[in-house]
Amino acid sequence: MDQTNVVIIGGGVVGCAIACELSATTSDVFLLEALPKLGMATSTRNSGVIHSGIYYPQGSLKARLCVAGNTLTKQFCERHNVPHRNCGKLVVASHDHEIPDLEKLAANGRANGVEGLRVVGRERIREREPHISAIAALEVPSTGIVSAEELVKTYARVASDRGAHIVNSARVVQLEPRGDSIEVTVQVGDPAEPDRLERETIAARCVINSAGLYSDEVTAMLGDTHYKIYPVRGEYAEVIHSRAGLINALVYPLPHADMLSLGVHFTRTLWDTVLVGPTARYVADKNDYESDRLPLEDFWKSALELLPELKLEDLRLAYSGLRPKLVPPDQHAAADFVIARDPRYSRAINLVGIESPGLTAAPAIAALVAKMVAETLA
């Protein structure tokens, strides 16, 4: 049986960032990704926004790791030539009664350490986004956009260059604690070709569960059924190229009161296309990206108040993504990231419910996890 120091389960942006961080100081790091390519799920099916940290409760992991990750992500992108843009964003109010909510959001962001926030009026909105209809906005200069796919690939490339072993099409099927290690049984190969599947077992001194949508299933392999992931699908439409000039950067409404999402917003991408979305809807299947897709009319109606010039024929359907929510459909609340040792097996570190702002927070999460790993291996 092969033995190693660290096995990371899950090759999304967070898993790859952890592999990148650990490989700088730790030998024998393995990253196992169940799918044929890295980052195929939540990590690259989103808006690609580098968030600032304005939304999250003070003192929460989401707040602290997002604010730190905002800077770290930009520094990593600069250092490794990952396409990104520090474009800033507007969170807009359409009605007078919403302005106090903008002020509260600004106060929360300042308390979290977000710099440069200010509430502005119509003149500044017209200067930045002349086609947007709003009476006030919170200007957030530290928000940016990034090529999520290139970010994932670059974290993985740097990790591999430093000696980490990255294995795709490697699904973890069993975890078995053995005192000073955890035996990780892996099914390697394409599940569509069952006769060619192989099984291997690795004894790891530390196991990191960064399995995203499937992180609850990984914790259950160690007997902890406390967590349950509820997949929430976010769908996008895209503005046709000839009308992409309606939006210059990022424009958000005030976040939903039910805490399910930040609301359908506009994102001008690095490729100068404009996304409208995401929506937010609970689905039963962790692989359900396409069934019963919303019609374009739904996106159009959601966008019209902020962008009255938009026409239905300006839109076409784009992709969708799934978020690993920890909150069930019947609860209107927000859950923080879970980053903790398994309660029974200290050699296992669980990351559960790593949804937005996970893309932004990834390098800060990686630094936190690296400290936990160092304590385990000491």
Uncertain spans = none
Q: Could you tell me the strand content as a percent range?
A: 25-35%
Number of domains: 2
Note the main sheet: 9 strands, mixed
User: How many DSSP E strands?
Assistant: 20
CATH architecture of the largest domain: 3-Layer(bba) Sandwich
Shape: globular
What share of the residues lie within helices?
A: 25-40%
What is the compact description of this entry?
This protein has 378 residues and is α+β, with helices and mostly antiparallel strands.
Could you explain how this protein is built, in words?
The protein is of the alpha+beta class. It folds into 2 domains: 2-45 and 149-228 and 334-377, FAD/NAD(P)-binding domain (3-Layer(bba) Sandwich); 87-143 and 230-325, D-Amino Acid Oxidase, subunit A, domain 2 (D-Amino Acid Oxidase, Chain A, domain 2, 2-Layer Sandwich), CATH 3.30.9.10. The chain contains 8 helices and 20 strands. The strands form 3 sheets. Strands 5, 6, 7, 13, 14, 15, 16, 17 and 18 form a 9-stranded mixed sheet that branches. Strands 1, 2, 9, 10, 11, 12, 19 and 20 form an 8-stranded mixed sheet that branches. The chain has a 3-stranded antiparallel sheet with strand order 3-8-4. Strand 19 and strand 20 form a beta hairpin. The two termini are 23 Å apart. The mean pLDDT is 96.
